Amino acid sequence: MNFLWPHMLALLLLLPLLVLFYLWLLRRRRKLVVRYASLGLVRQAMGSQSHWRRHLPPALFLLAISALLLAAARPLAVVMLPTQQETIMLAMDVSGSMRAADVLPNRLEASQNAAKAFLAELPRHVKVGIVAFAGSAQVAQIPTHNREDLLSAIERFQLQRGTAIGNGIVLSLATLFPDAGIDIGNMTYGRASGVSLDQSTGIKEFQPVAPGSYGSAAIILLTDGQRTTGIDSMEAAKLAADRGVRIYTVGVGTVNGETIGFEGWSMHVRLDEETLKAIALRTQGEYFHAATAEDLKKVYETLSSRLSVEKKETEVSALLALLAAVFMLAGAGLSMFWYHRVA
Length: 343
Fold this sequence. Notes:
Elements: E1 2-3, H1 14-33, H2 39-46, H3 51-72, E2 75-82, E3 87-93, H4 107-121, E4 127-133, E5 137-144, H5 147-155, H6 165-176, H7 184-189, E6 217-223, H8 233-242, E7 246-252, E8 258-262, E9 265-269, H9 273-282, E10 287-290, H10 293-308, E11 309-315, H11 317-339
Helix pairs in contact: 1-3, 3-11, 4-5, 4-10, 6-8, 8-9
């Protein structure tokens, strides 16, 4: 446990002095007792209370003082708290390979159903935006609290050719940071050879932060295949990492892949787990594999719980003060009940 004001811990040295003062009072009381002419009268006056009862209320008061002194040092502890994240971006693959039926009824419908269940579990104060990507990326729904609009956007998905995973990430970032000058068109077509994404024309200068340190937003990337076009996936992941945005990647389908037909042509689609794991690692997110519809549902349930609460180091002085109040009230209550006095 850490303390904001550790020097205040020196006040704990008062506790042994209080114990010594209490022992002195007990000894003084015994000296007064022997002055009585009859010890029988003393025993009768003291009653038949158990020995430990006399010491319990003072012990509770001592614990209360200890808790207050610890609270004065402003202790910090890692606890689970409701998340402060305000926006979640769902970047969802709508490429032709999502019609594969290895995830029943097919990959697209399974992902749509899981996303709907995820929205139902997510706290209402969290905004959600949706980016759909195939050969290009489009904002299907700007971030909103309105779950009905989000469900409608998910229902409107249309399958297209190509898989531009990097475009989906970059457009999600552009939606999260509308004033950052992130122009996916310049990055895709207007970037000179050898120029990195964060040096692209139009992007405003910024100071990179630690990966995963931006707590107000996160991206959930769902895809079933390999990048076939568009911005490099790892360059896009670096752009997110430099802004502290975590990307949770979800791989849908079998690792070995499947051959599917679409609009008169066929292709073999394979899940690129290595890249998805690398994206999650680069941004301090996490990778999940969903080989079945049930797996996908469980993934979204896990994400919902993790995005609803977070581990955070926070000051717990108030909890110690509350504990002190409980000890003090308990001590006072026992004194009143047993001896008809507060102390």
